[in-house]
Amino acid sequence: MSRHFGEIRQLGYVVHDIEAAMDYWSTTLGVGPWYYNPKVPIVNYQYDGVGYEPHNSVALANSGFVQVELIQTRNDVPSMYRDFLQAGRTGLQHVAYWTESYDADVERLLAQGFKPKMSGEVGARGRFIYFDTEYHPGTVIELSEVAGPKGRMFDLIRESSKVWDGSTDPVRPFPDLSKL
After folding, report:
1. Cα separations in angstroms, 117 against 27, 63, 89
2. How many helices and strands, by DSSP H and E, does the chain display?
């Protein structure tokens, strides 16, 4: 467990072909089911303090307590994912910690000298922030707010992984966050 953030709750992988990645993870590794959104509804997105409109496809599944996130960029909007790909990398790009005390945790991390790089929101009370912490590939830190519908979606994904039979509906649509 991290003394600064708590438990790592998510491993974020940047991939070139999200459909092939979901197939590999479910068929070869037995991780699933995957909840897939071809265009994540990110609002208030910023990279280095400048606003943009990203088009990212995301798939989420759990392996036990840890959530696996697959990310494919679909446009050339500046992002840490794009930077990762442009550096010739694919695979593990970030680790995420989850919080229900987002404002207090961000304030504490900023006071400790962490530098924000990328941020936005997915659903009500679903803010996220990535810090400029890449020491080597896979060490970017994301802090993700899970106090609202996004947190309930994460619970649904984790619970469905516990009863998934390994073959039925390996890819499912994201639930409607406005109904969670």
Report:
1. 35, 28, 19
2. 4, 11
pLDDT at 109: 93
In the chain, the amino acid numbered 165 is: D
Task: Determine whether 63 is exposed, middle or buried from the number of CB atoms within 10 Å of its CB (0-12, 13-18, 19+).
Answer: middle
Compute CA distances 133 → 78, 91, 117, 157, whole Å.
17, 17, 9, 28
Against a cut of 0.70, is the pTM above it? yes
Q: Could you tell me which residues come within 8 angstroms of residue 99 by beta carbon, excluding any fewer than 6 positions away?
A: 6, 105, 143, 144, 145, 146, 147
Tokens describing residue 100: 């229900």
For 161, the token pair is: 């992984």
Residues forming a β-bridge with 46? 51, 119
35 sits in which H/E element: strand 34-37
Q: By percentage, how much of the chain surpasses pLDDT 70?
A: 99
31-72 tens-digit pLDDT: 999 999 999 999 999 999 999 999 999 999 999 999 999 999
